[in-house]
Design goal:
- The structure is a single chain.
- The chain has one domain.
- Helix 8 packs antiparallel against helix 9.
- It is an all-alpha fold.
- The longest helix is centred in the middle third of the chain and has 35 residues.
- The chain is globular and about 60 Å long.
- Helices cover 86% and strands 0% of the residues.
- The protein contains 9 helices and no strands.
- It comes from Halorubrum miltondacostae.
Length: 204
Amino acid sequence: MAFANEADRRVVEQGFLDRVQHLAQAANPAFAAGSLLVPLAFLGASLALASTELLFYTHVAAGAIWFGFALIFPAIIGPTLGGLDEEASAAVTTTLVPKAVFFLVGFSLTTVLSGTVLLTTDLGLGYGFGGAWSGAALALGWGLFAFGIAVPHRLHLSAYYETLSPDPDASRLESIEKKNLVVGLFEAALMLAIIVMMTGFRLG
């Protein structure tokens, strides 16, 4: 598969900031900015209004979107791509991955930041958010956020850049898909653990 343009050819050899700029352009700059700013705006509004209720629902909603999409990607989207022909799979990958990266970063960052505020400040502690269960869930949440940046996102981007290469390696793309499935199962286990911890906290 040929590069769409010379910029796509150069981006593989460029640095981090250049790649972020490339991904933002590929995702649509407005979508990329919105994916980061909209969920964080709810966090900002919660702090500005000192509203624990808004902060709590921001945390729950962002977490639900993060967890849901993180599971859907390896469970449904990955296998679906594997069943498409090479051209169709490449078209979906190059369109979807840049958007997914910004979308997941925005909602996962909002989840862990709002959870941190709830569990470490007077705004949340005044309403009883705290304790061993919630502290463990917060630590695991930050660990899952870091893991997401370091592993699943890198796998998605590896598939994206492989698809942009002059001669995509079908075996490498298949290998990435299999790794995504394993990583997805691991993420699902961590997410379930967080839900169990938070349920224990709320019931305790």
